[in-house]
Specification:
The longest helix has 23 residues, at 345-367. The protein has a seven-stranded mixed sheet. A two-stranded antiparallel ribbon has the order 1-2. By secondary structure, it is α/β, with parallel strands linked by helices. It is globular and about 65 Å long. The protein has helices at residues 38-52, 71-89, 98-107, 117-128, 139-145, 149-155, 173-187, 205-214, 225-234, 266-269, 274-283, 307-312, 322-329, 345-367, 369-387, and strands at 65-67, 93-95, 195-199, 217-222, 240-244, 257-263, 285-298, 334-340, 391-399. The chain contains 15 helices and nine strands.
């Protein structure tokens, strides 16, 4: 969840730094010295690490792994998460319940040992360069959000929400996503006639909801052309303006807004840019206004993401921590509310997977079997991450400190 406001929170399965969280990041102890029997050595190491999470090779439980190609073991040992994920895409191994397998792997703390060189290189690159600087910012839009609206229409709810739903009292995904939209509106204490700035607008579902249900005027920024095209059609005739521009361009808006919302954007902009995002939001906010940030949250501060997620799902992304967001907020804004409903991402991802799987016959010819396996690995590994509480989902309400008090909403 993934991803941009509704541009899909990257539910980034296992965002990591050198300490790396995904299950496959096992330290290949003494691998270089094993020459006579490297295949069996790789099998022993990988099997032993899986056993720590009560996962067996060839077992009969839903979370046990079935290996079809013995090269899986060496590939995983050499390339950690990236190797394991690519081996799955290539059909070298299977598991009936990837979500439960990953939940067990993440919960097995001994498996979060030292990462592989690919993860270390990603971390170094993220520290040396601003991976989400202007020219690179649209990379994730081209790689992920512009894949095809047919894919997302098949997978998502009727309002095309590509961020975590809010499940209390909901009977299905449509109701849970409407709960989320109403929760955002209520936390922003909206009134008819308010002007809203949305940074990262996704498929336009939030803008449509705020315009039709609350009588607000919305200006929405997004870098995905496919999403913008869909959103403009959805909101035709409503007081909504969509800009096919990076969120940083909103600094040039001449007007000020009663409220600012950034839903699922922080996951894409990089740890070096959180303060800039919040500064833009603050500068464009009227006195007495409110800002709402909806983001996946990491339990630890990192500077890069898992190598497989980086390559195949969300390039240049990273999940923020409390410390990183707190540093960006400090001396600029006041935290009025910080709400965690991370466990709700598990059923959201499972609902997306079930929709995608049911609709696959209509997508198969366009996307192909390797994409199917990639998307299954993505959605269900993310579900396992949230089930193990490795990742959270935060809604943060901020002000300039110029309101007398704030009443939280749940």
């Amino acid at each position: 969840m993934c991803k941009s406001a509704e541009s899909g929170e990257r539910c980034a399965a296992g965002t990591t730094d050198s300490e790396s969280s995904p299950a496959w990041n096992a330290k290949p102890l003494a691998a270089a010295s094993e020459t006579a029997d490297s295949d069996s050595y790789a099998r022993r190491v990988v099997s032993g690490l899986l056993e720590l999470a009560d996962i067996r090779i060839g077992g009969n439980r839903p979370w046990d792994i079935q290996v079809h190609d013995p090269r899986f073991f060496r590939r995983t040992l050499r390339q950690s998460n990236l190797g394991a994920g690519e081996a799955y895409m290539d059909g070298w191994w299977d598991v009936e319940a990837p979500d439960e397998m990953f939940a067990r792997l993440y919960a097995a703390k001994p498996l979060s040992q030292l990462g592989k060189i690919s993860t270390l290189l990603l971390s170094l690159r993220a520290r040396l360069f601003n991976q989400q600087a202007g020219g690179r910012a649209a990379h994730v839009a081209r790689r992920h959000y512009d894949l095809g609206n047919d894919l997302f229409q098949t997978m998502l709810d009727r309002r095309m929400q590509y961020t975590c739903a809010y499940w209390p009292g909901a009977r299905n995904l449509d109701e849970a996503q409407e709960n989320k939209l109403r929760l955002i509106a209520q936390k922003l204490h909206l009134e008819a006639g308010m002007d809203i700035l949305e940074l990262g607008g996704g498929f336009g579902g939030l803008a449509h909801f705020l315009a039709t249900e609350y009588g607000c005027r919305v200006v929405s920024y997004n870098i995905s052309r496919e999403q913008i095209d869909y959103a403009r059609e959805l909101c035709r005739g409503l007081p909504v303006r969509f800009e096919l521009k990076d969120y940083r361009e909103a600094a040039r808006e001449s007007q000020r807004f009663h409220r600012v919302a950034a839903i699922g954007l922080c996951e894409h902009i990089g740890y070096k840019n959180y303060r800039q995002l919040l500064r833009i939001a603050r500068d464009r906010l009227m006195d007495g206004g409110l800002i709402l940030v909806h983001t996946i949250g990491n339990n630890r501060s990192v500077t890069t993401t898992d190598a497989w997620i980086e390559k195949y799902i969300f390039p240049n992304g990273v999940i923020p921590s409390i410390a990183q967001l707190g540093a960006a907020i400090e001396n600029g804004l006041v935290v009025e509310d910080w709400h965690n409903f991370g466990p709700d991402y598990d059923p959201t991802l499972l609902a997306w997977w079930n929709n995608f799987d049911r609709g696959w016959p209509l997508l198969r010819e366009k996307y192909g079997q390797r994409f199917y396996r990639m998307w299954r690995y993505y959605l269900l590994s993310c579900a396992g991450t949230f089930r193990a509480r490795e990742m959270q989902l935060w809604q943060i309400v901020l002000s300039k400190g110029d309101i007398p008090a704030y009443m939280p909403v749940r």
